[in-house]
Amino acid sequence: MNWESTLAEGRVGLRPIRRRDGRIWREVRARNFDWLEEWEATVPIEGLESGEIPASFGMMVRSMHRNARAGRLIPWVVTYDGKFVGQLTVGGIAYGSLRSAYIGYWIDKEVAGKGIMPTAVAMALDYCLDQLHLHRVEIHIRPENAASRRVVEKLGIPEEGLRRSYLHIAGDWRDHICYALVEGDRPEGVLAGWRATQST
Fold first, then answer.
1. Strands (DSSP E) along the chain, which ranges?
2. Is the pTM of this model over 0.85?
3. Do residues 180 and 157 lie in contact, with contact meaning Cβ atoms separated by under 8 Å?
4. pLDDT (tens digit, 9 = 90+) per residue, 99-152?
5. Residue 1 lies in a domain
6. How far apart are CA 121 and CA 100, in angstroms?
7. Residue 67 domain-assigned (yes or no)
8. How far, in Å, CA of 64 to CA of 17, rounded?
9. CATH code assigned at 138
10. Is residue 65 part of a domain?
11. Greater confidence, 85 or 42?
12. Based on the structure, what is the number of domains in the chain?
């Protein structure tokens, strides 16, 4: 697995996150704090006590790169016209009899609604299914997160059902809706399908 792959479609790009992204990452996150806080993954108190959460951006990136080298993660930055506008992570990569992963993402509110994140997610899904040869890719979203749900709905990713108390978000265990694509669902490619909807 080449976790350092860079992908592009028009003005939208995916590239590996780097330590030098620290300044702009902190700036964008701070500016979007109120918008993102409600959907942010958190660590239960036991995890905080054990030092499970990275203490700095640099530590977070080192942890991501370590997991990427081990084949468990692809930590991408989302760019628009070459500028940092968000993050997309392919996580939980498993091979063997499972061959699956999940995708998580966030975007700067200032550029939300421009089709950037659907394009980024489409590229990531195609990469997972075509390049990593995974069988299944899931995206888990809180039912209340209408903006994030619109991303997968625009791409026509099937909804599979509710996962109760699935992730610790904003300080508590939250239900999530599972959306998933399975190998063979989109033989033409997710990105090609998204392109087609944009040209009509």
1. 7-9, 12-16, 74-80, 83-94, 100-107, 136-141, 159-169, 172-182
2. yes
3. yes
4. 999 999 999 999 999 999 999 999 999 999 999 999 999 999 999 999 999 999
5. no
6. 16
7. yes
8. 9
9. 3.40.630.30
10. yes
11. 85
12. 1
